[in-house]
Amino acid sequence: MRIAVIGKGKMGTLIRSSALAKGHEVIGCFDNTDKDRLNVPVDMLLDFSHRDNLDWVLDYTKKNGNGLVYGTTGLEEADLEKLQNISEKVPVFYSTNYSLGIAVLKQVIEKVTPLLREDFDMELVEKHHNQKKDAPSGTALTLLEAMDPNQEYQHVFGRQGMVGARQKEIGIHAVRGGTIAGEHSVYYCGQDEILTFSHEALSRQIFVNGALKAAEFLQNQIPGMYSMKELIN
Ligand SMILES: NC(=O)C1=CN([C@@H]2O[C@H](COP(=O)(O)OP(=O)(O)OC[C@H]3O[C@@H](n4cnc5c(N)ncnc54)[C@H](OP(=O)(O)O)[C@@H]3O)[C@@H](O)[C@H]2O)C=CC1
Ligand SMILES: O=C(O)C1=N[C@H](C(=O)O)C[C@H](O)C1
């Protein structure tokens, strides 16, 4: 497959080397400083960069008709709408986390939350490296959606000061430090018992493997929006 990578950072460079090792042709890593260099057709774009690249990436995709594997987090609602719109023309794979473990964790959370939420307080903690730009992580927001699909809870991002007794809320907490590749824990805290569901990324390779698997999957799909659910079920 002929691939172009959007992003030249930690993920972009690892995707490039891993795709080459799998025998794909990678024409390069790009961002908005050198987008004009991306002037040949490709089969697939993999974007792990920053939302500021989204508009030109979508313009290129509209013209070229390539598939798009999108992994950049820190998106706004309007960005998601843009991805949804272009998925009417080309196949788009979107996930805030390309690891198999988080895909399974999301399904676990969807199943256990209805059994616990009446009697247990729910909290979410994510930990990442000290270079991460967005907080909370995209994965934390995805897990939050799985915990509260109908938005019945107040979402409290960190607590500070005289917060008073806990209300019908889910607390979301972001830790940033060192080289943590990514850790997500969902806590269900009840009377004298706690259930914790955790996932720890030990390296970024798990995200890269998932993203390349998504690209290979997407190659054979018609236009539409695809997610990890389709890859694992
Ligand atoms: N979905 C998933 O499974 C995963 C998603 N991610 C997400 O992928 C993205 C990249 O992560 P990572 O590689 O670790 O980050 P890095 O900071 O290492 O790389 C980010 C890349 O985006 C570019 N960039 C940063 N800011 C801007 C901007 N304002 N406009 C245009 N380009 C910009 C950087 O260029 P420069 O260095 O010049 O600023 C760099 O090339 C993040 O959103 C992260 O959350 C990460 C891991 C897994
Ligand atoms: O920036 C990162 O590193 C990661 N970002 C994604 C996120 O925001 O959820 C996925 C993973 O946790 C690593």
Automatic annotation (TrEMBL):
Q: Enzyme group, top EC level?
A: oxidoreductase
Q: Name one GO molecular function term.
A: 4-hydroxy-tetrahydrodipicolinate reductase
The pathway entry for this protein reads as: Amino-acid biosynthesis; L-lysine biosynthesis via DAP pathway; (S)-tetrahydrodipicolinate from L-aspartate: step 4/4
Give the record's keywords alphabetically: Amino-acid biosynthesis, Cytoplasm, Diaminopimelate biosynthesis, Lysine biosynthesis, NAD, NADP, Oxidoreductase
Q: Which Pfam families match?
A: DapB_C (PF05173), DapB_N (PF01113)
Q: Where in the cell is it found?
A: Cytoplasm
**Which Gene3D superfamilies would you find in this protein's record?**
Dihydrodipicolinate Reductase, domain 2, NAD(P)-binding Rossmann-like Domain
Q: Where does the record place the Dihydrodipicolinate reductase N-terminal domain?
A: 1-98
Span of the signal peptide? none
Q: What is its main location?
A: cytoplasm
Q: Where is the active site?
A: H128, K132
Ranges for domain Dihydrodipicolinate reductase C-terminal come to 101-231
Amino-acid positions noted as binding (S)-2,3,4,5-tetrahydrodipicolinate in the UniProt annotation, renumbered to this chain: H129, G138, T139
Query: Where do the annotations place NAD(+) binding?
Result: D31, G71, T72, T73, S95, T96, N97, Y98
Q: What is its EC number?
A: 1.17.1.8
Provide the catalytic activity annotation.
(S)-2,3,4,5-tetrahydrodipicolinate + NADP(+) + H2O = (2S,4S)-4-hydroxy-2,3,4,5-tetrahydrodipicolinate + NADPH + H(+); (S)-2,3,4,5-tetrahydrodipicolinate + NAD(+) + H2O = (2S,4S)-4-hydroxy-2,3,4,5-tetrahydrodipicolinate + NADH + H(+)
Instruction: Identify its protein family.
Output: Belongs to the DapB family.
Q: Which PANTHER family match?
A: 4-HYDROXY-TETRAHYDRODIPICOLINATE REDUCTASE, DIHYDRODIPICOLINATE REDUCTASE
What's this protein's function? Catalyzes the conversion of 4-hydroxy-tetrahydrodipicolinate (HTPA) to tetrahydrodipicolinate.
Protein name per UniProt: 4-hydroxy-tetrahydrodipicolinate reductase
Source organism (scientific name): Faecalicoccus acidiformans
Instruction: Specify the taxonomic lineage.
Output: Bacteria, Bacillati, Bacillota, Erysipelotrichia, Erysipelotrichales
